[in-house]
Amino acid sequence: MSKTDVRAAEAADGELVVRLAFGSMAAQTLRAAVRLKVVELIGDGQRRAADLAADAGTAHQPMTRLLRALAGLGLLEEHAPDRFSLTPAGGLLDPEHPASLTSFVGMFTDPTLLRAWEHLDTSVRTGEVAFDTLFGTDFFSHLGHHPELSGQFNAAMSQAVAETAAALPHAFDFGRFTSVTDVGGGDGTLLASVLDAHPALTGVVFDTADGLAGTPRTLARHGLTDRCSVTAGDFFRSVPKGSDLYLIKSVLHDWTDDQAVTILRHCREVLPPGGRVLIVEPVLPEVVDIHADADVTDGGITYLTDLNMMVNVGGRERTRTDFEHVCHRAGLALTSVTPLAAAPPFSVIEAVAD
To answer: Residues in the active site (predicted)?
Structure first.
């Protein structure tokens, strides 16, 4: 490699490090845009920065600087000095957009979630959950005492599941089953999509009372009130009987291996002959390869999610070997892992009674 090539490679490496170091600033830029309703104020056309500032109740120059930062991040386009419109990505910050990520951005840039990240090194040293130490309670108990934050979390999870909800009903043979219970199913977005696509199925959304706050509205909107029931409970104690398929999406990664085994064991205890447990989560490769597995690891985001589990809730993302281990301890045998191509980085993990 020539000296010129070496310098170019070093420059590219430096740009990567600098870009990563500025990541938290980019996140707060998104948060400010959401809080100031920049996207809603711009709308479908072009708007002058001065007019946006007046509508948002801000000073002109600071608003212009925010808008230009958003343009630099690819969320806006500046057509002429001080005249802006939305890019398709920027449109996702509109709460009325069908694929809106407004609540997701609000939750994952919230100071409550981010405080524990300031102590990531401590969690790495000790293995302790930084959130618990900072707040004197675990993350989900904290949500239970803060209704506004809990509502934001539920909305964020609903937005986060939208892509998977569109893909999953066509990526697995649900027609083999008669009833599906969505364990930790939140507002019912995922199960509603499955039931819409498979009219012969009935369903149960099972979650805590707080997690189910928006579920009746979701089921009513989809016309599923007669085909799907809502059951409140604690999956660390039991799960409802009566289904031949138990669906668990983005639940196990919130918990330690021992806790994940408890949840899976409760599913195993009510599983009828021929029944299945269907886990939908990212499956990390056994070895990180940013070239071969870029589509699986989503540019490293899944590994950041893993660290978020460490500092905020004590859970983890898992490899196939990890899933085989927790399933075996729960009396289940993992039979297949299929990447959900239309909703990366998720995979569909099927397990049967061992």
So the answer is: 253 (proton acceptor)
